[in-house]
C-alpha cells in the first residue's frame, strides 16, 4: 500500500527535482523522493554498522593501562595532527 505525502520545497529545489526527472533519471517526483529515502536509509544503516564494528573493536582491545589525562593528551595530539584542533 502506498501512502500519499505532500511536501513543500523552495523553487530552487523544485527546479532541481524537475531537472532530474526531465533528464530521464526518474519517471516522476515520487520516484525521485523514494530513491532519496532509500539512499538515506542505506547510508544510516551503513553508519550504524560501522559504529557497531568500531565498538566491537574497542571492546575487544581491552582496558587501557593509560590514565585518563594520558588518553586525553594523546587524543588532542592526534586531533592536532589531523588538523581538527587549533590550540
UniProtKB/TrEMBL annotation:
Keywords: Toxin-antitoxin system. It holds the Pfam family ParD_antitoxin. GO terms for biological process: regulation of DNA-templated transcription. The keyword NAD does not apply. Belongs to the ParD antitoxin family. PANTHER family: ANTITOXIN PARD. This is Type II toxin-antitoxin system ParD family antitoxin. The lineage of its organism: Bacteria, Pseudomonadati, Pseudomonadota, Alphaproteobacteria, Sphingomonadales.
Amino acid at each position: 500500500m502506498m501512502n500519499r505525502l505532500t511536501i513543500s520545497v523552495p523553487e530552487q529545489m523544485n527546479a532541481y527535482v524537475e531537472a532530474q526527472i526531465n533528464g530521464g533519471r526518474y519517471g516522476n517526483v515520487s520516484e525521485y523522493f523514494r530513491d532519496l529515502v532509500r539512499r538515506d536509509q542505506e547510508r544510516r544503516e551503513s553508519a550504524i554498522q560501522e559504529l557497531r564494528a568500531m565498538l566491537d573493536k574497542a571492546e575487544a582491545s581491552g582496558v587501557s593501562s593509560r590514565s585518563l589525562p594520558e588518553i586525553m593528551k594523546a587524543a588532542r595530539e592526534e586531533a592536532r595532527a589531523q588538523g581538527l584542533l587549533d590550540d
